[in-house]
Amino acid sequence: MLERVGVNTGDRPIEVLSRGEKQRVAVARTLLAMPEIIVADEPTASLDAHNGEQIADLLATLAREHQSTLIAITHDKRLAALMSRCVQLEKEQLVADGHREEQA
After folding, report:
1. Backbone angles phi, psi at 80, to 5 degrees
2. What pLDDT does 50 receive?
3. Domains of the chain by range and CATH?
4. Could you tell me which of 72, 62, 68, 9 has the C-alpha nearest to residue 36?
5. N or C: which end of the chain has fewer CB within 10 A?
């Protein structure tokens, strides 16, 4: 799973990993359990554009593969675009609630 999220920790202890690497390890740990529901709070926030896109795609793909429900709290428009439903809040108010067709 670490390979799928693009992390090679080698023998390095977790304390010396970058914030982005730690975030990708957390995603891998979550996905290993194959949960029915995945709640991801800003899963791409500490990642550069390339790695953020990879994690967004991976989360969406694995959720679909394992028929898990993915709930993501995000400011990442790339990740939001992968969701079948996107609820937008501003100042604690609902401003949009849209459904999309299932991603192929």
Report:
1. -60, -35
2. 85
3. 14-99 (3.40.50.300)
4. 68
5. C
